[in-house]
Amino acid sequence: MADEIKSLDALKDAVAGAAAARPAAETETEAAAPRTPQRDAQGRAYATGKRKDAVARVWIKPGSGKVTVNGKPMAEYFARPVLQMILKQPFEITNTVGQFDVVATVVGGGLSGQSGAVKHGVSKALQLYDPTLRGVLKAAGFLTRDARTVERKKYGKRKARRSFQFSKR
User: Fold this and answer.
1) Whose CB among 42, 64, 109, 144 lies 3.0–4.6 Å from 54's, allowing a Cys bridge?
2) Mean pLDDT per 10-residue run, the chain (169 residues)?
């Protein structure tokens, strides 16, 4: 038992010595590597957002706040005010309302999933355009992909978990 403790202490000392042997500048750059903005030749940031079965390709660029989804204005494509509110959340939390134009193409899923996918894509594109916004978006949970999807149907069941109606006679 005492030999194991001595060997553990020796191992800890070896790890500490290896860390001390490394230059301090090298460890600082590894820990806090600054993120750089990622923009294309037109000054746009691109990101892909996903939610349920919907996938959104999103481009943002500086502008007047115009949002276009599949070639239609946001208010026309997402008619429900709740879906429009979901889309505006990343801009409201980062205080950039009306500063970026958004062009998005969405496929798959329903309107609710599509609005969530565009929100996810906008959030990712915002943090790529301006890396200083990453902390705010991350704290709000907008950069995390919501992995919940529809459960598959099982054999012997009417739906994923619903059984067929039981008849006693």
Assistant:
1) 109
2) 55 53 51 80 94 96 95 96 95 94 96 96 94 93 92 96 93
